[in-house]
Amino acid sequence: MKKIEAFIRPEKLDDIKDALAVLHVNGLSISQIMGFGSQKGWKEYIRGSEVEVNFLAKIKIEIVVLDEQLDAVVTSICENARTGEVGDGKIFIYNIEDAIRIRTNERGNDAL
Question: What average pLDDT does the segment 26-55 reach?
């Protein structure tokens, strides 16, 4: 099993959710976060004063998938999140040792 963490632009969330539904990914978590990378931010003027906006709104998607689903899910996220501009996001992939469905006590792949 693998855990995928994808940091994306907020406006791309619906496209990614629709694409993952086609792949029968049946569970994901999202968090609204603030951050910056290469994009850095911008400057605004508020009441005549210059203010530097360093943190940008992003969405963090967390998905746990079977090993055989990994490539298709990552490809789908990349295709649907890409605008070609700085700030499209990043994907991180982790190994998952085990999973447990609390309701039934199923473990491993059956818990997904």
Answer: 81
